[in-house]
Amino acid sequence: MLDAVPPFRAKAGAQDDERVIKLAVLAVGGQGGGVLADWITDVAERNGYVAQSTSVAGVAQRTGATIYYIEMARDTGRLPVFALSPSQGDVDILIAAELMEAGRAIIRGFVTPERTTLIASSHRIAAVSEKIEPGDGRASSPKVHATAEAASKRFIAFDMEKIAADNGSMISASLLGALAGSGALPFNRESYERSIGAGGRGVKASLAAFGAAYDRARGTAAPAAKPAETVIVGSALGAGRVSGPQDLLQGWQALAARVDLMPVAVRDMALRGLKKVVDYQDIAYGRDYLDRVDKAVALDSADHAHALSIAAAKHLANALCYDDMIRVADLKTRSTRDRRVRKEVGVKDGSILQVTEYFHPRIEEFCGTLPVGLGSYIESRPKLAAFLDRRINHGRRIRTDSFAGFAALWFIGGLRRWRRSLLRHRVEMTHLDRWYALALGHVPVDYALSVEILNCRRLIKGYSDTHVRAQSKFDRVLSALPMLKGRSDAADWIRRLREAALKDEKGDMLDGALKTVATLGPTPATRSP
């Protein structure tokens, strides 16, 4: 009879053999939170504990993690009373499968400085709220780290996702290794390993990830050697040794030598931009990029920490590498993308992966891939453009795992050798030159304003309709320049307008900010160069 063995609930000051250990795991779909909870429960039972595992499902992938809650107590012959979900201030160990989940656990009160050991993977998965913001919506990782240090009794954090991936396993295995290495539970390493081995699937990889994370948590792991990166001209570029055809290699070395002649503060950004531009097009395109950066360097000085040149190096590279049908097709047919997709999906060697690409081209994208004369001819005739748009503007599904589908995209991607002669390129370069001349023209009068005009290029991004909306915001922000003429705080206002445009997809905040600017009058003082 249950009444013969009265239940108990451990209270403060309870003996170790009566204490209930409370552990919560926060994870989203695909991270193996259920497997981790099963492993922890099995470890406890192997060591003479009774344990209970429950789960409270989240809403969706990134709007709510599932909470796996485990309570365990030493089996003394008395039946414990376990709770079904964690309570604020009543969790001994909290495991978060991603950094921001640790932050959410702190907000919810599950982590306390007198009691909780907090174990979290330091990698990031962007939440929905971070993705939908037009600008940089990422929450501050250093702020979460600092808060976690202060809010917990002990904080253990490192990239457990990378450890799992390097060993061909799931993050659940490295999270378990971090738990074991922390010593927060009174169980030895062998108990954990036996629980993993009892699973029967992916045991070798899981044990490898477990061991690596265990050593890292205990501080006994050797520091990882930084691999040497190779730069391949015309492919994905890194920093370090360069290899490729001799003529391309010589061209790249000449461009790299030009970067070395720039001020030290500018070199890093200029080299990054150069790599991006050459990868996007070719060596000659990289030469054009550096020619434009040199114009900013010539007007700049160390007195301003070369802010103008750094902004020019960054935003010119992004402007030159605009997204078009050619770029999209090129990226989708690269071998690196196939390897990435296979890794993310978890396709085993010898298995067949079917990939379907989705396209919805408009007449504007079609005309953009035509020679300047032909594309302009179609766009200048609305009836002809509408006739073609009815036949072009609809969704398409292209199977790039088939020869025909891959060949079609490969052909479109190969058009990049003729990109400079196409209509879209002329349109983009006309817009770029106008923006760049506007920014550099303000340097003698207001250096800070010139930098902010360059930074406004951040507003332009995306492809198709997204690009059109972004360019509209860009134009609306810079439309305030005549209203700010003569004001000493013109740069600050352009920055505020840009931030308003980035925070609101619909543009309501930007509209309000522009109305405020319209009410301002000129100030007599101007910012000195």
Briefly, what is this?
GO terms for molecular function: oxidoreductase activity, acting on the aldehyde or oxo group of donors. This protein is of the alpha/beta class.
Topology:
Elements: E1 20-27, H1 33-46, E2 49-56, E3 66-74, E4 93-96, H2 99-107, E5 117-121, H3 128-132, H4 141-151, E6 154-158, H5 160-166, H6 171-182, H7 189-197, H8 203-218, E7 230-232, E8 241-243, H9 246-260, H10 264-280, H11 283-299, H12 307-320, H13 325-332, H14 335-345, E9 356-359, H15 363-368, H16 372-379, H17 382-392, E10 396-399, H18 403-413, H19 423-441, H20 447-455, H21 465-478, H22 481-484, H23 490-503, H24 508-518
Parallel strand pairs: 1-4, 4-5, 5-6, 7-8
Antiparallel strand pairs: 1-3, 2-3, 9-10
Helix pairs in contact: 1-6, 1-7, 2-4, 5-6, 5-8, 6-8, 9-10, 9-11, 10-11, 10-12, 11-12, 12-19, 12-20, 13-18, 19-20, 20-23, 21-23, 23-24
Describe what this molecule looks like in 3D.
With 529 residues, the protein is α/β, with parallel strands linked by helices. It has a domain at 21-218: Pyruvate-ferredoxin oxidoreductase, PFOR, domain III (Pyruvate-ferredoxin Oxidoreductase, domain 3, 3-Layer(aba) Sandwich), CATH 3.40.920.10. The chain is 51% helix and 10% strand. The strands form three sheets. Strands 2-3-1-4-5-6 form a six-stranded mixed beta sheet, sandwiched between helices. The longest helix is centred in the last third of the chain and has 19 residues, at 423-441. It comes from Mesorhizobium erdmanii. Residues 29-215 form the Pyruvate/ketoisovalerate oxidoreductase catalytic domain. GO terms for molecular function: oxidoreductase activity, acting on the aldehyde or oxo group of donors. Keywords: Oxidoreductase, Pyruvate.
